[in-house]
Amino acid sequence: MSDSVRILVVDDHEDIREPLASYLGRYNLDVTVAADGIGMRNALERSRFDLIVLDVMLPGEDGLSLCRWVHEHLRTPVILLTAMADTADRVAGLEMGADDYMVKPFEPRELVARIRGVLRRLRMTQPEPVAPPQDGVRRYGFGRWVLDVGRRELYGEGGRAVQLGAAEFRLLQALVEHPNMVLSRERLLDLIRGSDAPVFDRSIDSQVSRLRKKLEDDSRHPQLLRTAWGDGYLLSADVRLLQA
Questions:
Q1: Is the CB of residue 53 less than 8 Å from the CB of residue 111?
Q2: Where's the DNA-binding part (predicted)?
Q3: 51 within some domain
Q4: Do the Cβ atoms of 72 and 97 come closer than 8 Å?
Q5: Are residues 109 and 164 in the same domain?
Q6: Is residue 132 part of a domain?
Q7: What is the pLDDT of residues 11-30, one digit of tens each?
């Protein structure tokens, strides 16, 4: 497994999380630890992780609630750890968005295998960028919106045109062509670089905010242009290619 794989281990028992972090490190996994939900959220704001190993029984916000939040906002894969072996508890965890479930005490070698399995499945199901059709027609539908790349126009319900600035259009095009994929600010800058106006790191945030006001029913609670805290943004929508 590549040494670029980053794992966040969240467990309130120091005698579990520290030895576990050390063990995972032997398999070239870059491990960060946190003792509770606050520490987990702080870590997620600072860094991007490929997978979270999350204890269910935590002080304060419990692991199931945190798992649901991760599933809704970040979509980072989660393996839950619990001392409860009841089937109902495992089902509850999976329903909250967990990708796998392990009962304490467990064999660390099995956890490594589970981590590899989850990441392997994720790579196999990772959505590919939406490629433009061969004839050059580039119109994308997502939700109730249509983005016409050729005309550089956005249309809403009933064919209503929505005015976009040049930077807003380029940013939306990049997100539409990579749906359901978290794109960091750096990646977004790479995708829209070389255009007629300079775009800077933090200006991405401003452009996203402007787009939300035009696309979302409630820009304070976006459902379409989501934030992956500490990582970037994603367009949470099924994108389809449309004929002219």
A1: yes
A2: 135-237
A3: yes
A4: yes
A5: no
A6: no
A7: 999 999 999 999 999 998 99
118 and 17 assigned to the same domain: yes
pLDDT score for 20: 96
* 195-220 as b/e: b if 16+ CB within 10 A: eeeebeeeebeebbebbbebbeeebe
CA 218 to chain centre: 21
Cα distances (Å, whole numbers) of residue 7 to 34, 96, 132:
11, 20, 35
- For residue 81, list its beta bridge partners: 55, 102
Residue type for 18, please? E
pTM: 0.55
Among 125, 155, 189, identify where a domain stops. Answer: 125
Q: 196 pLDDT band (50/70/90 cuts)?
A: very low
CA dihedral 242, 210, 167, 191 (to 10 degrees): -70
pLDDT over 80 (residue 68): yes
Per-residue pLDDT of 197-242, as tens digits, reads: 444 445 788 899 999 999 999 988 898 999 876 668 889 999 998 8
172-188, pLDDT tens digit by residue? 999 999 998 888 888 88
Residue 134 lies in a domain: no
Q: Which residue segment(s) compose the domain that 121 sits in?
A: 6-125
Q: Would residue 236 count as lying in a domain? A: yes
Q: What is the CATH number of the domain that holds 52?
A: 3.40.50.2300
Q: How many residues does the chain have?
A: 244
Q: Is the bond leading into 19 cis (omega within 30 degrees of zero)?
A: no
Cα separation, 139 vs 201, whole angstroms: 27
Q: Is the pLDDT of residue 130 over 70?
A: no
Domain count, the chain: 2
